[in-house]
Amino acid sequence: MALDSKIPEGPLADKWTNHKNTIDLVNPANKRLLDVIVVGTGLAGGSAAATLAELGYNVKAFCFQDSPRRAHSIAAQGGINASKNYQGDGDSTYRLFYDTVKGGDYRSREANVHRLAEVSTNIIDQCVAQGVPFARDYGGLLDNRSFGGVLVSRTFYAKGQTGQQLLLGAYSAMNRQIGRGKIKMHNRHEMLDVVVVDGKARGIIARNLVTGEIERHSAHAVVLGSGGYGNVFYLSTNAMGSNVTAAWKAHKRGAYFANPCYTQIHPTCIPVSGDHQSKLTLMSESLRNDGRIWVPKNLEDAKAIQNRELKPTDLAEDKRDYFLERRYPAFGNLVPRDVASRAAKERCDAGFGVNKTGEAVFLDFAAAIIRYGKEKAHVKGLNEEDEALIQTLGKEVVKSKYGNLFQMYEKIVDENPYETPMMIYPAVHYTMGGVWVDYNLQTTIPGLYAIGEANFSEHGANRLGASALMQGLADGYFVLPYTIGNYLSKDIRTGPISTDSVEFDEAEAKVKSEIDHFINNKGTKPVDYFHKRLGKIMWNKCGMARNEKELK
Ligand SMILES: Cc1cc2nc3c(=O)[nH]c(=O)nc-3n(C[C@H](O)[C@H](O)[C@H](O)COP(=O)(O)OP(=O)(O)OC[C@H]3O[C@@H](n4cnc5c(N)ncnc54)[C@H](O)[C@@H]3O)c2cc1C
Predict the structure, then answer these.
(1) Ligand 1 geometric centre to CA of 163 (Å)
(2) Mean of pLDDT over the chain
(3) Looking at beta carbons, which pairs linking 13-20 to residues 24 or more positions away fall under 8 Å?
(4) Which of 1, 134, 146, 253 has a 20 to 30 A CA-CA distance from 332?
(5) pLDDT of residue 279 exceeding 90
(6) Mean predicted confidence (pLDDT) in 406-428
(7) Ligand 1 in contact with 483 (CB < 6 A)?
(8) Range with the lowest mean pLDDT among 122-136, 229-243, 245-259?
(9) Domains plus CATH for the chain?
């Protein structure tokens, strides 16, 4: 099949505006005749479902959690990018576009990224209007911080809970439509197949996870906002439920996959502690605004720290190697994630790791505490030479910025990160690859769309921090609601899609026979056993470093 990305003609900066001005629309009365299934209620699916219903389409939304509010987007911590240039530090649509393409190692589709940069500012306005409590500065204006791979501050945030707050916004918008009857919400349902009729996606087969019943659902178009495939590696920062079934089933029905080899390894996660774990915990990238990453300069010191014979706080400054600041002076600790992860692995492989297994580096806030403490003392006219006072004031500032992350770290590691540096190590976090989509976010199956982390198009070989939330909400609030209309405008006379057809019969029978096979195969090992084994192979052979021999 020849892939046609359907990128509009014309200069990059005009493509989206021209496209919106020329594609077909569906008038409000006709929208009421059209049904859309949205699989997934994270930031991508939730925002899409709410917007499509607001426009007038009849939406059926599905998620496997007990509430849309529990989609994995809730875990997002650090922030969401937008080129508002509130800081007056030189940001612009072009700069956000440029940083994203460069950060993605020039592997992203540029037309999509430019569109993303253009609509990024609308997202912030939309979310503020919904009441999302973004952090504000002293004067009450929206605050920003910096993320890796950029030289400006463009990240909007709500402490370390940005995903949760944004999801509550999308969920409220959904709830309004559920209340109006425009969204029929199917919680605790897992999509197990896409139904293709005459070459078009016309419905899904889903399993009711409470009753076990297999159900048929039809629509004029199907949207997948079903998240990424990081769990292929078993251990990752994703929830165990993020299991990629939806995208995989769509692939088996003919939706192409793109760039499955591009997995993001996040540099700041809590290191693996043993074989009992099913999940790893992220320490948000925002911590790299103030935390300094280092390992000892000398192998003997590293060994002493590993064996707990030497405390990191007792190691003199000149015996520490702030390796990111040393190697990348312009970006320092805020280099892109892939660069930071590879550098940490290289130092640990060379023997400089700092935990028991030698697979951790330090993320240290001591300098930030002193810097903030002195500033606060100065502002309040207090004694800037009083070390105890500086510590107290500095810790207060750090707590106000990252308090929940520090608390989470202490709960898991049982060490106080205000007193001793955090230990971090890279872990699987995000998948840049995904279901192939064209400029309209349509997959290679007509009528089947993919949005958010489930698709592949925006982040190339490496996603910059705070760009996933931006993409999910751009797709759901501002892109798909336009582009899907162009497709649905041809369906205004089709009438409701029946579930009583050979295609639905065949898909349902296939799902049932697969479930029967797994339930009755009398195996002796649980699914997790195989998942763990596969995950280990993936991490060791296809993880941060790959070579021909191991891949074979
Ligand atoms: C710990 C963590 C922190 C992060 N922090 C940030 C951050 O600060 N900034 C940033 O930009 N990005 C961050 N990310 C990335 C970002 O959160 C995700 O990429 C993004 O939220 C994905 O949104 P989504 O809507 O595409 O998918 P998800 O939120 O994963 O939602 C998937 C939805 O699909 C449903 N689903 C899946 N399969 C099926 C099926 N078969 N049947 C029915 N329903 C199904 C699920 O129930 C769920 O509702 C973070 C990610 C993690 C893991």
Answers:
(1) 9
(2) 95
(3) 13/93, 13/94, 13/114, 15/111, 15/114, 15/115, 16/111, 16/114, 16/115, 16/118, 16/119, 19/439, 20/482
(4) 134
(5) no
(6) 95
(7) no
(8) 229-243
(9) 12-262+432-505 (3.50.50.60), 267-428 (3.90.700.10)
> Contact, 305 vs 357, CB < 8 A?
no
CA of 356 to the centre of ligand 1 (A): 32
Sign of CA dihedral 246, 247, 248, 254: positive
Burial (CB count <10 Å: 0-12, 13-18, 19+), residue 501: middle
CB of residue 73 inside a 6 A radius of ligand 1: yes
Please give the structure tokens belonging to residue 41.
């209620």
Per-residue pLDDT band for 1 (boundaries 50, 70, 90) equals confident
Q: Which atom of ligand 1 lies nearest, measured to the CA of 467? A: 11
Is 337 among the residues known to form the active site? yes
- Centroid of ligand 1 to alpha carbon of 406 (angstroms): 23
DSSP designation for 268: E
What residues have CB less than 8 Å from 1, skipping those under 6 apart? Answer: 256, 444
With a 6 Å cutoff on the Cβ, whether 245 touches ligand 1 is yes
Q: Is residue 470 over pLDDT 90?
A: yes
Orientation angle between helical segments 93-103 and 110-130, nearest 10 degrees = 120
Q: Spell out the residues 6+ positions from residue 255 whose beta carbon is closer than 8 angstroms to its own.
A: 194, 247, 435, 436, 443, 444, 445, 448, 450
3 state DSSP class of 104: coil
Q: Is 439 in the pocket of ligand 1 (CB under 6 A)?
A: no
The whole-model pTM stands at 0.93
Structure confidence by residue, pLDDT tens digits, 214-223: 999 999 999 9
